[in-house]
């Protein structure tokens, strides 16, 4: 098995994009809890994202969600982010919080609503021009609750037309990334429920259209790493929304519910070339911190991704291939598990110190006083949700 030393240089380029909404208050449909220090402005969300990067060196970009993060001057916001030491990353559209979208957005039967949804995406593209963002990420709440409620088939056609209208406005260096989700908020059918549908839709658009894989968006027991392998094989894995789940789209800290799954996913990422610095795969978090503090929640998350990436890089691929080739079932399995069971935490702590980072970002954050400062300073104004 390769040693940590042998793989450690490959950790240098790791970058995980954090979501602006992770810093806002969140909750369930039962209750959104307020918490001291929660951002009241988009700038405060960006400052918190920058803190995650300062303590970990892992999170140089923050994704925005429009209109949650709408501002008047995106050039000024981009400059503000740079002052804080981060960049604005993916722009996420949002057609799920407006009454007009009750029965759908890009798939709606009414051309007026459809046009409104398309125009929202064109506005997102303009924001990307101002922020220098590469990716427009589209997740749709579109679907239906009752059999017969909607014509599922014509909605696919309308989706294709709407996406084509948006795709036509992309600049050469911009991409459209389509995110699928099995259910919720629609409970009977969802217009982009799975990777197959997302793939069919993006393939019809062209080379700059990709699929986003949110790890919480599958049926229980789905082999998510198989989907990773397949999308990479087809050159269509645009991004991840990392989180973990016990039941549905729980949006918990990545690697907390099932670290082994995160390891298996990262192994397929590495195996398929998705970890190369120029692979075009954007690694993002999509999480909400309902009960834990948000900044340490994000720090824990990026560290979990780093830890499982290290272990995945340590799989002895030569021995694995040899065992597979020899039909040695348990031998191959053992090679795989050896890497998974390797504790790299002390190595990572030392690695961080050689790069001027705190050995324990969690402890360093707790001792830094940042949390106390924001809790004392951010009184008054309205706390943001999501
Ligand atoms: C939908 O569940 C989703 O995963 C999409 O990425 C949304 O943009 C995000 O969550 C919002 O929280
Ligand atoms: Mn998501
Ligand atoms: Mn989700």
TrEMBL record:
Enzyme's top EC category: isomerase
Pfam families registered for this protein in UniProt: RhaA
Protein EC: 5.3.1.-, 5.3.1.14
Molecular function as annotated in GO: L-rhamnose isomerase activity; manganese ion binding
SUPFAM superfamilies attached to this UniProt entry: Xylose isomerase-like (SSF51658)
GO biological processes: L-lyxose metabolic process; rhamnose catabolic process
Annotated Gene3D superfamilies: Divalent-metal-dependent TIM barrel enzymes
Keywords linked to the UniProt accession: Cytoplasm, Isomerase, Manganese, Metal-binding, Rhamnose metabolism
Top-level lineage group: Bacteria
UniProt name for this protein: L-rhamnose isomerase/sugar isomerase
Annotated organism of origin: Nesterenkonia sandarakina
